[in-house]
Design goal:
Layout lengths: L1 E10 L7 H21 L2 E6 L4 E6 L2 E6 L6 E11 L2 H8 L3 H4 L3 E7 L7
Antiparallel strand pairs: 1-5, 1-6, 2-5, 3-4
């Protein structure tokens, strides 16, 4: 099986949800990730904070975020296993935030490199 990175992209304009809605979405995502683990497709995952720094050289930080002009943010990632890109996309389509129209999932194949 190949590895795929799911980048969870949320619209910043819809992030102003109540604590009850946030808790409900968190529970939905937790159950979904648990189902990925049970199916053997799960590798790892974590939510991300909205603090950003863009680095262009070893001595220079280009800019800090979050950025007011940004319309979306990557709120988390999931590393999965799948037979191919099509299966990975099919898995991503079952994300409850995608189903509910609250997020999009960017699916990226991981290039496996032999470690030194």
């Amino acid at each position: 099986m190949d590895k795929f990175l799911f980048l969870i992209r949320e619209d910043l304009n819809t992030r102003d949800v109540t604590s009850q809605e946030h808790e409900k979405n968190l529970q939905l995502m937790t159950r979904w990730v648990e189902s990925l683990a049970q199916s053997g497709n799960y590798v790892s995952s974590d939510p991300l904070l909205n603090t950003v720094r863009y680095v262009t050289t070893s001595n220079q930080v280009l800019s800090d975020g979050p950025f007011i002009e940004a319309k979306e943010a990557i709120s988390g990632f999931i590393l999965t296993r799948a037979q191919n890109l099509e299966q990975a996309v099919s898995i991503a389509q079952t994300c409850p935030l995608v189903i509910n129209g609250l997020a999009a999932v960017e699916v990226r194949p991981v290039l496996m490199i032999d470690h030194i």
